[in-house]
Amino acid sequence: MASFVVQGSNRISGEISIHGAKNAALPILAGAILCPDCIIHNCPDLSDITAARNILSYLGCETHREGNSITVKRGGIINCDIPDPLMREMRSSIVFLGAIIARCGFAKISMPGGCELGPRPIDLHLSSLEKLGVQIEEDHGYLNCSAAGGLHGAVISLPFPSVGATENIILASCTAQGETVIYNAAREPEILDLIQFINEAGGKIRVDSDSTIIIQGVPALYSCEHFVIPDRIVAITYLCAAAVTKGDILVTNMRPEHIAAVLPVLEETGCLLRQYDDAISLRLDRRPKPVKNIRTMPYPGFPTDAQAPLMALSTLAEGSSMYIENIFENRYKHAAEMVRMGAKIKVEGRVALVEGVKKLHGAPVECTDLRGGASLVLCALAAEGESRIEKINHIQRGYEDLEVNLSRLGANIKRSQDERNETEEENAQG
Ligand code: UD1
Fold it and tell me: Of 2, 58, 391, 428, which is the most exposed, with the fewest CB atoms less than 10 Å away?
């Protein structure tokens, strides 16, 4: 299995352009089965995107990547199910459910299991689809979902603004009969990007007031071309990489307004920020200051995906910082790995107390999840000595060429392939 070897203490300095948002591209790729063909630009080259293309191929679509653009030609859909191995490749394959039902009137998927962030139930996805006319039966670990009488509009009030459930409702209802209204919908930028994509394909969706989405079903979507928004979490990660190494960076091709909740927190740590239309520069010349209380919230609040990168910065702060994780039950697994590098972190339930230390030291650590893994790289960049970061497959789900980009920015980071483990793994799978 591949790992990163980092010799820490180099400053991160320079300019980085941000790639397209994985979490926007994935539901858009699912929505591609509703259009005869489409071209999706600014699609990052990541393992999760490959997993989505594998699902599209299984369903009967042709996909083709040229640079950062992916062309999807629907042709005739030949399968309306997602086999278990494809579901397991990526937890967010659940977002294909709404699109497949809309296209085929039927879908069969395996129940997505728990994941590294704790249990990730899909009750809101399923109860919402039922309101749209879907009958759901459990069958030996699979869900048989059928809309025999056709999908129809409905009024759906979400008890929690789930991102995935909102996306599934949008995908299932955009070609349903009549109007669907989602109250308390998620309003992450990635949701607005999905809505834009569907509208570019002839859909009729509007966002009324802050958290109500109104979907007027249309008979069919047309072919279209779409440009995916930049990845706000990747932008935050590079900003934190510069901050944690007392460096300076210009992050370009991004949308500063998408990370409005994070910028004041970075300022609180002492970072000097300058905001441009599509870029942000950051400099930190001193030890970071602690942050009072970071509470993760649905957008436009502080994003749960930014909790781990910010925590990397807090490990070196001049004082104690408090984090309260309100979105996922089990999102502090990286903390135990940071402690191996000399960080002082106490976790109790949803609260993490980080007492800043003067120095971190290199250590062997393991990625526990995507953002947690990236935050270990940040700690390693700042630490004295060598760190080996294992299980970087988690990181490759969401960061394109992370080690190449960080090297260009001054880091000493190399990817190493442990061939012994690789062979053992292949044998175990075989
Ligand atoms: C998406 C993002 C993920 C981000 C998260 C929150 C993708 C591919 N992933 O995940 O990076 O961290 O939004 O911003 O876009 N819940 C239920 N029942 C449901 C659905 C969700 O209880 O049916 C709970 C979840 O367990 C979790 C919370 O709601 O505790 C948030 O989940 P949700 O907003 O759905 O996140 P995802 O779509 O899974």
Answer: 428
- Tell me how crowded residue 301 is: count the other CB atoms within 10 A of its CB: 12
Active site residue 115: yes
The ligand 1 atom at the shortest distance from the C-alpha of residue 304 is 12
What CA–CA distance (Å, rounded) separates 129 from 122?
A: 11
Counting as low any pLDDT under 50, the low residues of the chain are 421-430
Q: Give the pLDDT confidence score for residue 426 in this predicted structure.
A: 37
From residue 372, how far is each of 14, 69, 200, 376, 386 by CA, in Å?
24, 28, 35, 6, 19
Cis upstream peptide for 36 (omega within 30°): no
Write the DSSP string, 240-266. Answer: HHHHHTT-EEEEESS-GGGGTTTHHHH
Do residues 304 and 317 make contact, with C-beta atoms less than 8 angstroms apart? no
pTM as predicted: 0.95
- What does the angle CA 157 – CA 330 – CA 346 come to, to the nearest 5 degrees? 130
Buried b (16+ CB within 10 A) or exposed e, 109-135: bbebeeebbeebebebbbebbebbbbe
Q: What does the block give as tokens for 351?
A: 């609260």
CB-CB contact of 403 with 413 (8 Å): yes
What integer pLDDT is reported at residue 423 of this predicted model?
A: 43
- Ligand 1 and 276: CB distance under 6 A: no
Q: How far is CA 366 from CA 44, 307, 412, in A?
A: 24, 18, 19
The residue to mutate among 327, 331, 334, 350, having the most atoms of ligand 1 within 8 angstroms of its beta carbon, is 327
Strand partners, 41: 227
**CA atoms in the 13 A half-sphere facing the CB of 32:** 31
CA geometry: angle 283, 284, 290, nearest 5 deg? 135
How far is Cα 231 from Cα 413, in angstroms, rounded to an integer? 22
Where in 119-184 does DSSP place strands (E)? 135-139, 142-146, 155-157, 179-183
Which of 80, 115, 240, 379 is catalytic? The answer is 115
Which residues make beta-bridge pairs with 406? none
Residue to probe by mutation, ligand 1, list 87, 94, 120, 258, most atoms within 8 Å of CB: 120
In the numeric block, the tokens 């990489």 are attached to 241
The predicted pLDDT at position 430 comes to: 27
Q: What are the φ/ψ torsions at residue 42 (nearest 5 degrees)?
A: 60, 40
* Separation between Cα atoms, residue 253 and residue 107, nearest integer Å: 38
3-class secondary-structure state, position 307: helix
